[in-house]
Protein 1
Amino acid sequence: DSPETVSPTGVPTGAPKTSNAQSGRYLTTAQGARLRDTDHSLKAGPRGPVLLQDHHLREKITHFDHERIPERVVHARGAAAHGVFVANGAAEGITRAGFLARDAQTPVFVRFSTVLGSRGSADTVRDTRGFATKFYTDEGTFDLVGNNIPVFFIQDAIKFPDVIHAGKPHPDREIPQAQSAHDTFWDFVSLHTEAQHHTIWNMSDRGIPRSYRTMEGFGVHTFRVVNAKGETSLVKFHWKPRLGVHSLVWEEAQIINGMDPDYHRRDLADAIEAGAYPEWDLGVQVFPDTEDEMFEGIDLLDPTKIVPEELAPVQVIGTMTLNRNVTNFFAETEQVAFHPGHLVPGIDVTNDPLLQGRLFSYIDTQLTRLGGPNFAQIPINRPHAPVNDMLRDGFHQDAVHSGVAPYQPNSLDGGCPFLAGADMGAFIDVPAPVAKSRKVRENPATFDDHYSQPRQFFRSLTPVEQDHVIQAYTFELGKCYEENIKVRQLQALANIDERLCAEVAAGLGLPAPAPTLKVDDAEPSPALQQVGGTWPVD
Ligand code: HEM
């Protein structure tokens, strides 16, 4: 056993307690009493009934009976690894976050995932991939909970239960297990046209990554950063894999699903074990923090939009290397709890309505998934910064809190110096102005354009990549039972690109509808070609 580190208040921090019962000298009960026999239950004679008094039998079976916890409601299937993030200092001018200062090194834990499949589903399905990073910084834990696709299906978190209900297996037959080929999925995205942009990325080669090691990652939302002078900027986070972006082709993906459903997790673990440590550069697109939170006509609060990289290039601010596999899948990969609200001084959220809802959702689901309010004390979730909170008691409380006065100010336990108002390097909410406005449920009009960016994306692809998109739509829609859903999705495709629509329609044996909107014929910009195509390898 390695010793646990315990902060002065009794909250465990840092290194987890490990145990290796399989190879220990003695096997014991959970209470530490040595066992003589773990293979036979206690009976009334060799052929007699088993005795209720057999404590070891009951303890062993009872614990086994409770080994499972609920899988994540989304992103249930994942694989993870430890590593280190080294900053190059390029972000020092825009954020005071200490872990982004030049040469700062920060331990990280990254979990990659599919979104819709269950914990036991296959790896190489067509789906979005999660790319969630926990930075254990000296100023507290920062979680960058992103995906491998830079936009999201919906613009408002209130639609999240709906899009997930549509994407998960049908409630009657519990099929399909993957994202592919649902009536409900296509019903949703054809009725909610803001989903068309994310969907065309899914239908492209980005939906079937070759490896977690060759995926980009995106924070998706715009975040607000603040520097030491209190000046703010808006940023979007990007992870760029040093190995370049690579995908499978659909036939490969299908064969691999059958032959090795663990392909992605095996690839990640094998590469790390072999010392081929995967690396990503972390970059930011930086925008001025203007009152309207727009950039070049793009609403920065709309998570269904990208900002083309020719308009705002990605500036590299550090590099992450994954160099250590997990020791125990359950303890680490399964119990890790990410949260977009885990922020550090220098990084704050914006009013993106999708992000705002996420700030509520993660902790709420983790209360159930991880059995109560103390999951921050689970080793993988423990901050590496000292913890001194006033959260007390509850299920699975590990800390032995000293003192009698868990409230501030108090005159019994000494109180905290921050009450004197000194700068303690604390998180300060950016005093961003909040519009004096009526309460409304409507979206701003700047959220209304659902087609120009999917169109730019499609037209930015090479002919081979475009063929893959056409084949993917044709295959997936071809699996729908309801013809009216196919027809409605073809209408959305007509508004994206007439040739795309015509070819998918021909593949489905249906007439191609005319666009209901004026389709812009402009050629894509070079930056959009980069965004849509393969990222160049250095
Ligand atoms: C889990 C990303 C939107 C609710 C996750 C995970 C990722 C992720 C990567 C897996 C975390 C892990 O590995 O443990 C995103 C991105 C989003 C998004 C990039 C949009 C840009 C939302 C929204 C909601 C939501 C809008 C709810 C309103 C959840 C929940 C989990 C989850 C409940 C499971 C968390 C757990 O059980 O620990 N998300 N998500 N997500 N997400 Fe999201």
Protein 2
Amino acid sequence: EFAKSKSLAQQRQYLPIFSVRDELLQVVRENQVVVVVGETGSGKTTQLTQYLHEDGYTVGGIVGCTQPRRVAAMSVAKRVSEEMETELGDKVGYAIRFEDVTGPNTIIKYMTDGVLLRETLKDADLDKYRVIIMDEAHERSLNTDVLFGILKKVVARRRDFKLIVTSATLNAQKFSNFFGSVPIFHIPGRTFPVNIMYSKTPCEDYVEAAVKQAMAIHITSPPGDILIFMTGQEEIEATCYALAERMEHLISSTSKNVPKLSILPIYSQLPADLQAKIFQKAEDGARKCIVATNIAETSLTVDGIFYVIDTGYGKMKVYNPRMGMDALQVFPVSRAAADQRAGRAGRTGPGTCYRLFTESAYQNEMLPNPVPEIQRTNLGNVVLLLKSLKVENLLDFDFMDPPPQENILNSMYQLWVLGALNNVGALTEIGWKMVEFPLDPTLAKMLLMGEKLECINEVLTIVSMLSVPSVFFRPKDRAEESDAAREKFFVPESDHLTLLNVYLQWKNNNYRGDWCNDHFLHVKGLRKAREVRSQLLDILKTLKIPLTTCGLDWEVVRKAICSAYFHNAARLKGVGEYVNCRNGMPCHLHPSSALYGLGYTPDHVVYHELILTTKEYMQCVTAVEPQWLAELGPMFFSVKDSDTSLIEHRKRQKEEKTAMEEEME
Ligand code: ADP
Ligand code: MG
């Protein structure tokens, strides 16, 4: 209602942060670093940047604001550009990996923390920024945690630089202490009580339980929108599908007028235009039911939510020592996160939160706070980056919470295997080049191997295709048709080459959109891949790496692919069943793989990643020759046998059962 009847300017003045605008600006004037705490929706993300602009901080520099999530960076920049009545990308812009929507006029720049981190590589003092706002710092994303250490140095070197750290109530004191007891500014909250309802018994199928609960609310409870927290895209789609089905069933089985329900998914891979829908008012008074990942916990604020349904679960990237890699796994959320979720129901009026878990689970099983990402994920990129910033010993870096030594060593080991670090842990020539690419070390390695093997043109396409969401479109009601379309692109020995093949055919068809539709391909995904490709190509140019091609002789491309994935090499054990060569971990061919069901099961394969669903499935697989693994392996980069300190160390580490492993069990 409110959003419709009031102008944007009026809406701005109604936000809680507006009542403390002048005091806040005063504190910023008097201090170099300030921690700002406020409830979700108080106006931190959209208003702080504008206040700073109004107070003169965009003269001789710009205001930057980091976000842990891409979706938030995009959506908030759009909102602020509307509030400032300027085109997105003009005065207000955003930058996320492979997408820079800023220009020469940009004075307020939203970006992911990863983008700012990479900017510190080019400009250690971040001279173009007068102010940086580290937003959503309580999320403790990996990049934010590294930025903390880096920005602390910038603060010390540049007296004219201001740093604002924003946080939900969580962690504020810790942030203040880290920067030397800087002031904590509280934005007075305006929240309403939320009634918490627990499940009486542990819930077996939370998708089903959530659907039931949402339908019950819709039919029996007063107006107010519903927000459901799920763990990821698949579940969200399943929930939306089930809700739509129940609604349809209800409408056709009763003569009464069933109130309308507008079912809206939101997750990071959802196209931007569909994401924007959650902020719009539903048609003719329908009740909105938003089904979200934890993105709606704090980074996006939707008004009008009166009911929250919380599954109590979320997906987290966790380094799994057994698999030797990060995996997205479903975990119970922390108590702090559950409270945040519940709070979403009390923004507009008193609300209700239905927890699909028991009170005893909340009290006894959930951790009080989430574990910072830096303590649970692979640090490959961080290690590369810090090494290139001349941080020789990572254990000396000023981390707010240092990562476990085991994590650092694992990541260093993986970089050593890829040839990015030498035996004493310093960056090699390849390592230095890898830092230049905004890519995971594996993909950067593949690219550089493409240079060595003179097929970089082909590898570039594969890397670009792997950097975007899957381009294969598989609507539920046309599954067979789309599978058949997909099979036409198969290169039997490789999913990676299949991606290359798709891209080349699209190119041969003049990058046409209708051609994509005919072949069950996402045109947006392919266009994105093309954009990524051209950006990576620019980097190759600045590095003076020539664009070599192997034409259609793709065996050499498979070699380059092989060289990136030593840690993900597997050998055949049974029908469609493989084991990881390094750790014996079982892994299976996915039915969607080009290698599946073609009567062709190679003895050795490498894979891009492992997906844990009902089984451990290899995602994106390529057949390789065992001698390549030997030939291209770590020894290829003239690693001397004599200096094995790192390997020794790693062995010792492995023998001791680490705290992390125990925790995970
Ligand atoms: P905070 O960062 O303190 O959580 P925000 O600045 O994100 O708060 O949000 C302030 C207000 O702006 C919210 O009430 C929200 O409804 C509105 N808002 C934020 N982003 C958008 C958007 N993309 N579209 C519409 N409204 C938005
Ligand atoms: Mg915010």
